[in-house]
Amino acid sequence: MTARIGVVTFPGSLDDRDTQRAIRLAGAEPVALWHKDKDLKQVDAVVLCGGFSYGDYLRAGAIARFSPVMEPLLEQAKAGLPVLGICNGFQILTEAHLLPGTMLRNDHLHFICRDQKLRVENAETAWTTDYTAGQEIHIPLKNNDGQYVADERTLDELEAEGRVAFRYLDFNPNGSQRDIAGVTNAAGNVVGLMPHPEHAVEPLIGTGRTDGLPFFTSILKKLVNA
Amino acid sequence: MARVVVDVMLKPEILDPQGQAVQRALPRLGFDGISDVRQGKRFELEVDGPVDEAALARIHDLAESFLANTVIEDFTVRVEEAAEAVK
């Protein structure tokens, strides 16, 4: 039996199908979850995917955070359920206070879409064990509100505890503080990042590399070996 | 019916690129002498029933948990007196 990984679709989600595909390519079974679901269908992990849930009204992720599906997700994430938030999913996780900080409009005020170089800073989270710490990867980045901000104390804490999971390399595309592209919670089961690993799982698409696939093989290994 | 206004502004230490873009456009439009612009949000809540202390406390909770993200934003809650009478 393989692992079942849920992918939540909110009104305005865009990358749910790509994420399901990435999960399938990694060898796990994707399970579609709907924002109105009141239970998580006993999945082993959940991905909150990219897009513009609720049109990014109020703030990106602010309304999705109060969807029915978020109630069991919050509860189980705190108990150790692995959760990955990509782009809008990351924004939802910060709005839900599962991850610290928040995202502001890109400092240059433009939507940005590019192949982005990242450094994997923490290869011990549930979603990054198939990388090595310090590994440099290329995956697509596409967003409007990607500027990671938190107060100085929180940033210092994240750095000290190794919770900056990914950092932008060579070019900071949005003004994120300390070049932060993604962070993890203290337990390492909840991870969020702005770039899109699910778009870099086949040589044909994305950056022409499969640098995003280890996210999904990492979690599969963790769940199958568990 | 009474109106309660919630104003949400980015905290002073948070960069406001939208406000900056507005500020930079001002000289081009012939408006001089404005050194800074900060952009925020204003919510007008029409409240059924009396706006008593309990109602205001609930709105304060709503503002803190939903209308504002207190990681980056400050908010104020105030009752707009006699909104009907003005009309």
TrEMBL record, chain A:
| Subcellular localization | Cytoplasm
Q: Which residues form the active site?
A: C87 (nucleophile), H196, E198
What chemistry does it catalyse, as a reaction equation? L-glutamine + H2O = L-glutamate + NH4(+); N(2)-formyl-N(1)-(5-phospho-beta-D-ribosyl)glycinamide + L-glutamine + ATP + H2O = 2-formamido-N(1)-(5-O-phospho-beta-D-ribosyl)acetamidine + L-glutamate + ADP + phosphate + H(+)
Q: What is its EC number?
A: 6.3.5.3, 3.5.1.2
Biological pathway:
Purine metabolism; IMP biosynthesis via de novo pathway; 5-amino-1-(5-phospho-D-ribosyl)imidazole from N(2)-formyl-N(1)-(5-phospho-D-ribosyl)glycinamide: step 1/2
Keyword annotations: ATP-binding, Cytoplasm, Glutamine amidotransferase, Hydrolase, Ligase, Nucleotide-binding, Purine biosynthesis
> What SUPFAM superfamilies is this protein classified in?
Class I glutamine amidotransferase-like
Instruction: Check the record and name the Pfam families matching this protein.
Output: GATase_5
Output the Gene3D superfamilies linked to this UniProt entry. Answer: 3.40.50.880
Q: Subunit structure of this entry?
A: Part of the FGAM synthase complex composed of 1 PurL, 1 PurQ and 2 PurS subunits.
Role noted for this protein: Part of the phosphoribosylformylglycinamidine synthase complex involved in the purines biosynthetic pathway. Catalyzes the ATP-dependent conversion of formylglycinamide ribonucleotide (FGAR) and glutamine to yield formylglycinamidine ribonucleotide (FGAM) and glutamate. The FGAM synthase complex is composed of three subunits. PurQ produces an ammonia molecule by converting glutamine to glutamate. PurL transfers the ammonia molecule to FGAR to form FGAM in an ATP-dependent manner.
Q: What is this protein called?
A: Phosphoribosylformylglycinamidine synthase subunit PurQ
Q: Which organism is it from?
A: Streptomyces djakartensis
Taxonomic lineage of the native organism = Bacteria, Bacillati, Actinomycetota, Actinomycetes, Kitasatosporales
TrEMBL record, chain B:
- Keyword annotations of the record: ATP-binding, Cytoplasm, Ligase, Nucleotide-binding, Purine biosynthesis
Broad EC category: ligase
Q: Name one Pfam family in it.
A: PurS
Q: Where in the cell is it found?
A: Cytoplasm
Cite the EC number. Answer: 6.3.5.3
Instruction: Tell me yes or no: is Ribosomal protein among this UniProt entry's keywords.
Output: no
InterPro entries with a match to the protein in the record: PurS, PurS-like_sf
Q: Indicate the transmembrane segments per the record.
A: none
Q: Which reaction does it catalyse?
A: N(2)-formyl-N(1)-(5-phospho-beta-D-ribosyl)glycinamide + L-glutamine + ATP + H2O = 2-formamido-N(1)-(5-O-phospho-beta-D-ribosyl)acetamidine + L-glutamate + ADP + phosphate + H(+)
Entry annotated with the keyword Chaperone: no
Report the Gene3D superfamilies cross-referenced here. Phosphoribosylformylglycinamidine synthase subunit PurS
Write out the pathway annotation from the protein's UniProt entry: Purine metabolism; IMP biosynthesis via de novo pathway; 5-amino-1-(5-phospho-D-ribosyl)imidazole from N(2)-formyl-N(1)-(5-phospho-D-ribosyl)glycinamide: step 1/2
Q: What does this protein do?
A: Part of the phosphoribosylformylglycinamidine synthase complex involved in the purines biosynthetic pathway. Catalyzes the ATP-dependent conversion of formylglycinamide ribonucleotide (FGAR) and glutamine to yield formylglycinamidine ribonucleotide (FGAM) and glutamate. The FGAM synthase complex is composed of three subunits. PurQ produces an ammonia molecule by converting glutamine to glutamate. PurL transfers the ammonia molecule to FGAR to form FGAM in an ATP-dependent manner.
Q: How does it assemble?
A: Part of the FGAM synthase complex composed of 1 PurL, 1 PurQ and 2 PurS subunits.
Question: Into which family does the record put it?
Answer: Belongs to the PurS family.
List the protein's name: Phosphoribosylformylglycinamidine synthase subunit PurS
Query: To which species is this protein native?
Result: Streptomyces djakartensis
Q: Which gene specifies this protein's sequence?
A: purS
